[in-house]
Amino acid sequence: MDFENIIVEQENGLAKIIINRPKKLNALNKATIQELHSAFDALETDEKVKVIVLIGSGEKAFVAGADIAEFAHFSEKEGASLAKKGQEILFDFVENLATPVIAAINGFALGGGLELAMACHFRIASDNAKMGLPEVSLGVIPGYGGTQRLPQLVGKGKAMEMIMTAGMITAEEAKQFGLVNYVVTLEELMPLAEKLAGKIIRNSSIAISAAIVAINAGFVDGVNGYKIEINAFGNSFSTADFKEGTTAFLEKRKPKFLGS
User: Fold this and answer.
1) Catalytic residue at 115?
2) Is-contact 126 185, C-beta < 8 A?
3) Same domain (yes/no): 223, 180
4) With a cut of 70, which residues of the chain have pLDDT below it?
5) How far apart are CA 228 and CA 254, in angstroms?
6) Active-site entry in 11, 35, 59, 115
7) Which residues contact 130 (CB under 8 A, 6 or more apart)?
8) Do 168 and 49 fall into the same domain?
9) Interval 124-172: pLDDT, tens
10) Which run of H or of E encompasses 118?
11) pLDDT of residue 70
């Protein structure tokens, strides 16, 4: 896959998407959002890909926000359309991807950058990372799901504080608040992502996909996550991976999952 603003690498079941706009601190513009959608969509349908790691190029930023120059003169209607389309083709799309996505936050993750990281299934960070939603300092609010996902991850009170003050938090604070799972040095960040990906790859991809659906269901208004879990649990019994996993356990050997 050839792109202008991102780089995609694949090896041994792991795909890496590198947001590559270093001169703009990897800021999201329309073209980058569309390229990210195309990359995630293609990797989702690639049976060889079991885990995706998302990271920014360089050592300064994961994604330092949206490209403000693109929407500074938008009308009310254009602003709403920007948020709606962005959520549909990237942020909600990533959150509901059947393939696990790990955000490796290697520097600034601000505004749309933090929103993108929060759309991933979980996050790890380098110790130089800084995170925040500074939109109110520009007279606007987070528009790519930030007002919804941040409270889910850090709690309503902390999310209110972060959004209202437009301030940044450190990687260690993000870990303390539950926004990221691990904090390591920049040099250790990708090795950690690869280690976690390796643990995921050993497991049943079809079961993991079902778990993603069930977990996400618990955060959707009007949806009974327990019922989704029950149905997904039952469906698992019809899969080849269930037969292989249980047989391997009884035979005291490592399973060889086919993802079906």
Assistant:
1) yes
2) yes
3) no
4) none
5) 29
6) 115
7) 107, 108, 109, 110, 168, 169, 170, 171
8) yes
9) 999 999 999 999 999 999 999 999 999 999 999 999 999 999 999 999 9
10) helix 112-119
11) 87
